[in-house]
Amino acid sequence: MSSIFLDTLNKKKTHRPPVWFMRQAGRILPSYKKLKLSHSFDNLMKNKELASKVTLMPIEDLGVDAAILFSDILIIPESIGMKLEFTDNGPKFHNPLTADNINSLTFDSSKLDHVYSNIQEVKVNNSTIPLIGFCGGPLTTFLFMFRGNEKDKSFNNALKFFYSNRKESIYLLEMLTDASIEYVRGQADSGIDCFQLFETYCGIIPSELYKKIVLPLSTRILNAAREKNIPTIFFPKNFNEGLKYINKDICDFVSIDWNLSLDYARDIVDKQVGIQGNMNPRLFYSSYDDIDAYLESLLNFGEKNSDWIFNLGHGFLPDIDYVKVKHVVKWVKESNWNRI
Ligand code: CP3
């Protein structure tokens, strides 16, 4: 497969950065919103024709250089016995974890089979566009499992448990890691071309603590993909100065959130690791002039750094105008990056 996205991941020099967006499958696309009128989220994820259709929508509708599988990070908790429902207000667990039920979980790998057939279906429908598989980082997944109220954004129950039951927490994080490793291997065997680990709530604990307890587990998941020759992207959101610990033994690329500048991130991350990011998704609420001024400010970084993937600093918000997104994709693709 010839692809500017895969070339960049493989550290080949290209004439421009490749572009894709976190949360590009679904959410902002009119064609997805239309489909959502007649199908639930769960329905779309568990039917291979529909999941493949949504996965490939941003290729047509936005013109991005890679597809990300339409699925969710909370599939792993579901596979170890948690009862998950996607409500209009977000995902809800009907049996959130407490100190009393933590030992009742067991991994049933067959609950992930539908994801593998979705991957195969995407590959049948389009064999020329690279497909990104993913799962949630151990900490992010852990946090959601303690949440019974889908509106609660504090994760207080999970954090209280984490600080007061360290041994049990590590047991659970390791269990999530083992399930995720099997999941990554299954995704690789089904045909993904790249793997991203979403550790969206990395910054909820101090970076030193994340480094000590969780980073070795995240590294194991990422390395399971690499052992199958799948390049990896790690997204440790709000890791801040912890980025200095990211090196080539952990991942191939690291995705930077919008709190840091690309130049600063490039400075502190191991030079052998590429960078992805980091447009603030809220910039899409601004005028075209402001968006263009931001894009122009990236030309210098893009000229010097061929190991850079254009993306957001976090996923799209649902009310972003997809026409502005199309404009950004076109701009990235058509600008002169002065590279070759
Ligand atoms: O990037 C993509 O487009 C691929 C698919 C994808 C989804 N979720 C689909 C989805 C990916 C990569 C995710 C990751 C995910 N899911 C994360 C980590 C990244 C991040 O953005 O923070 C987290 C924390 C979740 C858990 C989750 N799933 C939440 C909190 C919600 C509700 C609020 C929201 O973000 O939409 C979901 C539901 C969800 N996952 C939707 C989609 C398209 C919305 C469902 C709908 O359309 O009604």
Give a short summary of the structure.
This protein is of the alpha/beta class. 45% of the residues lie in helices and 12% in strands.
Report the structural category: alpha/beta
Would you count the extended β strands for me? 9
Q: What is the string of SSEs from the N terminus onward? A: HHHHEHEEHEHHHEHEEHEHHEH
Relative helix content: 40-55%
The hetero molecules present are: coproporphyrinogen III
| Main pleated-sheet profile | 7 strands, parallel
Number of H- or I-type helical stretches: 14
Poorly predicted tracts of residues: none
Alpha carbon gap, first and last residue:
22 Å
Shape: globular
Strand content: 5-15%
Task: Record the strand order, biggest sheet.
Answer: 1-4-5-6-7-8-9
Overall pLDDT confidence: 97
Question: In terms of topology, how is this protein built?
Answer:
Elements lengths: L3 H6 L20 H9 L2 H6 L1 H14 L5 E2 L6 H5 L4 E4 L2 E4 L19 H13 L5 E6 L1 H8 L10 H9 L1 H25 L3 E6 L7 H21 L4 E5 L16 E4 L5 H7 L5 E6 L8 H10 L1 H6 L3 E5 L9 H13 L6
Parallel strand pairs: 1-4, 4-5, 5-6, 6-7, 7-8, 8-9
Antiparallel strand pairs: 2-3
Helix pairs in contact: 4-6, 6-9, 7-9, 8-9, 9-10, 12-14
Bound molecules: coproporphyrinogen III.
What does this structure look like?
A 7-stranded parallel sheet has the order 1-4-5-6-7-8-9. Helix 6 runs parallel beside helix 9, helix 9 (166-190) packs parallel to helix 10 (207-227) and helix 12 (288-297) runs parallel beside helix 14. By secondary structure, the chain is α/β, with parallel strands linked by helices. The mean pLDDT is 97. The chain contains 14 helices and 9 strands. Residues 22-27, 36, 41, 68, 70-74, 86, 90-91, 134, 140, 198, 200, 315 line the site of coproporphyrinogen III.
